[in-house]
């Protein structure tokens, strides 16, 4: 045999032996794949061996079902900074929810660095606990299926988690975490089963994943920065939420978050920011929601700074969370309710620099409604409605500061792409404004063509009703002469859009 052939063969054999020496099979440490024998100790023992290794190590879980009561993996004393866990089987939580129902975590990694999990299914078997909670009995709180705490350089790839008692995946106080190709599933009526919850972490990316649960697909808690979420299919569930925030007075803020290329299917919310109405020094800023499809979503776009899920007792104070620099861009699809955009900002710390660009959201009911059906009957809401420039606007009641137009201005393009004018709205009659670009928020109208004469007349009526709310909002009075009758009629159509919003 030629020496040129022998050398590669020897190298390949050496490489395979090296890999074999650094691969730990959990079955060699007593794990049973029958789904009945508790294999918790075997998994922990396999981890201890991998942790003590000075070279990269792989923990291998063969096909089969492995019952895990609870398993905690601590990496504080680990010598290895590269542990791969390759799972071909399914890890099962006890079917009796009382066994781990009061444990905070089912499987937890703490103070680990360089851990990567590839494949496998984590089955929380939480249906019994959900039934208990839905019947309003005295039940355990429930446990989170998979937790990473105080850890760095983590990868989850091709992992499936299903039917967790509570949260499926928790990323807490971590840095540089990548989740890709993750699948999370639980019924839409399973309580508190958030897909992925992130808190107090930096550099987290969640990509190309499918999440359907009974709560938020992804929830972003306090203290997060530099989050990237892309390529997500969400539904069922409560959408992607920043919050809830503001429960504590001293609370870290959320900043630099990108959510893009997401499809929401029949979720209760699309993209949401939610804060409690109580004092807090927290904030939400520098957030981009981009390239998003809504399919029959109840609340496609919502900022809720009076968040109180159980209705009482509610704080009923002004939220201290300052929300600023939020951009909604290229969001289209269908709303399951008449209110496609709801911006319920804090009265004491109103939102600022909120930008909506290229929106096309239609209500599934094609019948055109009167504007009064889209306006909240609350008197305060009517007083605080929206402000914009128009011939009917008189007086000087608005507090919006438009002097810094370079930073706030977003041009409005009419549907024929010929008329270009700025349209500004003011939230809570405070110095907090946002502009619209190529905006089309419709209720039964087709944005691709001009409206019929009858619809245009109804639009004029709507526009007049809108202006009745705006008589004292005239900071843009100097620009009113640019509106001739034709332009005014064009914008009248969009009067429906303005009042299908709920602007507190």
UniProtKB/TrEMBL annotation:
The active site is at residue 238. The keyword Hydrolase applies. Its main location: secreted. GO terms for biological process: carbohydrate metabolic process; cell wall organization. It comes from the Eukaryota. Transmembrane segments: none annotated. Residues 374-402 are annotated as: Disordered. Keywords: Cell wall, Cell wall biogenesis/degradation, Glycosidase, Hydrolase, Secreted, Signal. SMART domains: PbH1. Residues 1-20 form the signal peptide. GO terms for molecular function: polygalacturonase activity. Residues 418-479 form the DUF1985 domain. It is found in: Secreted, Cell wall. SUPFAM superfamilies: Pectin lyase-like. The keyword Lipid biosynthesis does not apply. Belongs to the glycosyl hydrolase 28 family. This is Polygalacturonase.
């Amino acid at each position: 045999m030629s020496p040129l052939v022998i050398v590669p063969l020897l190298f390949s054999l050496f490489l395979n032996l090296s890999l074999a020496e650094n691969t730990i099979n959990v079955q060699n440490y007593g794990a049973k794949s029958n789904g009945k024998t508790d294999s918790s100790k075997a998994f922990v023992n396999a981890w201890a061996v991998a942790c003590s290794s000075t070279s990269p190590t792989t923990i291998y879980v063969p096909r089969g079902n492995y019952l895990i009561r609870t398993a905690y993996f601590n990496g504080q004393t680990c010598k290895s900074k590269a542990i791969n866990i390759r799972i071909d089987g399914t890890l099962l939580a006890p079917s009796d929810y009382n066994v781990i129902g009061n444990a905070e975590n089912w499987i937890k990694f703490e103070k680990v660095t360089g851990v990567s999990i590839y494949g496998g299914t984590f089955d929380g078997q939480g249906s019994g606990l959900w039934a208990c909670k839905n019947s309003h009995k005295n039940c355990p709180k429930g446990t989170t299926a998979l937790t990473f705490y105080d850890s760095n350089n983590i990868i989850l790839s091709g992992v499936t988690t299903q039917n967790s008692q509570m949260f499926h995946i928790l990323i807490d106080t971590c840095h540089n975490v990548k989740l890709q190709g993750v699948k999370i599933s639980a019924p839409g009526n399973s309580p508190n089963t958030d897909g992925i919850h992130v808190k107090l972490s930096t550099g987290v990316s969640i990509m190309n994943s499918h999440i359907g649960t009974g709560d938020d697909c992804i929830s972003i808690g306090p203290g997060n920065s530099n989050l990237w979420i892309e390529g997500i299919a969400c539904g069922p569930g409560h959408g992607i939420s920043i919050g809830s925030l503001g429960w504590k007075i001293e609370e870290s803020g959320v900043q630099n978050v990108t959510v893009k290329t997401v499809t929401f299917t029949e979720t209760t919310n699309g993209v949401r920011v939610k804060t409690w109405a109580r004092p807090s020094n927290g904030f939400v800023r520098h957030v981009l929601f981009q390239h998003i499809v809504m399919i029959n979503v109840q609340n496609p776009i919502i900022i809720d700074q009076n968040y109180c899920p159980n209705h009482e007792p509610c704080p009923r104070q002004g939220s201290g969370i300052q929300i600023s620099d939020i951009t909604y861009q290229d969001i289209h699809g269908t709303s399951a309710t008449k209110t496609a955009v709801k911006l319920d900002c804090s009265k004491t710390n109103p939102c600022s620099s909120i930008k909506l660009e290229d929106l096309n959201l239609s209500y599934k009911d094609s019948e055109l409604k009167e504007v009064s059906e889209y306006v909240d009957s609350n008197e305060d809401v009517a007083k605080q409605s929206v402000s914009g420039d128009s011939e009917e606007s008189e007086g000087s009641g608005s507090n919006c500061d438009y002097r810094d137009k370079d930073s706030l201005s977003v041009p409005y393009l009419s549907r024929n792409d010929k008329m270009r004018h700025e349209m500004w709205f003011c939230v809570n009659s405070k110095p907090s404004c946002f502009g619209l670009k190529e905006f089309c928020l419709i209720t039964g109208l087709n944005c691709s063509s001009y409206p019929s004469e009858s619809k245009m007349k109804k639009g004029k009526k709507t526009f007049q009703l809108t202006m009745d709310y705006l008589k004292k909002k005239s900071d843009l009075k100097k620009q009113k002469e640019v509106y001739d009758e034709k332009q005014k009629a064009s914008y009248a159509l969009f009067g429906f859009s303005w009042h299908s919003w709920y602007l507190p």
